[in-house]
Design a protein that fits this description.
By secondary structure, the chain is of the alpha/beta class. The protein has a single domain, classed as Ribonuclease Z/Hydroxyacylglutathione hydrolase-like (Metallo-beta-lactamase, Chain A), CATH 3.60.15.10. Helices cover 19% and strands 28% of the residues. A six-stranded mixed β-sheet has the order 1-2-3-4-5-6. The longest helix has 10 residues. The chain starts with a strand and ends in an 8-residue tail after the last strand.
């Protein structure tokens, strides 16, 4: 597994040919971080954790990209339909071949 830390809050995990990006916000290198990504996790709606325009543009170009986020973020990405899934703390799911279980809602 390769972990790449981008500016501010963004992290990318490359594992077994898949890429998971966490919190690609407005202060991050979203073009690089999202390039070839299979899945994106957004922890909360602050702009330093999500760049709605960059994420939407990437998702429109990569129709296989899947996004998991809180409901408040899902509403901002409504135009992407069922590729965006709202999750609650304690729910388990797989993203880009990795098991994920959010433990709490972040407000930072």
């Amino acid at each position: 597994m390769r972990l790449t830390k981008y500016t501010h809050s963004c992290v990318r995990l490359d594992h077994d040919g898949h890429a998971l990006v966490i919190d690609p916000g407005m202060f991050s290198e979203t073009d690089t971080a999202l390039d070839g990504a299979d899945a994106v996790l957004i922890t909360h709606e602050h702009p330093d954790h999500i760049d709605v325009d960059a994420l939407t543009e990437t998702a429109l170009q990569r129709t296989e990209l899947r996004i998991w986020c809180p409901e408040s973020v899902r509403r901002q990405l409504d135009g992407l339909g069922d590729r965006v899934t709202a999750v609650e703390p304690g729910e388990s799911f797989d993203a880009a071949g990795l098991g994920v279980r959010p433990s709490a809602v972040s407000t930072r």
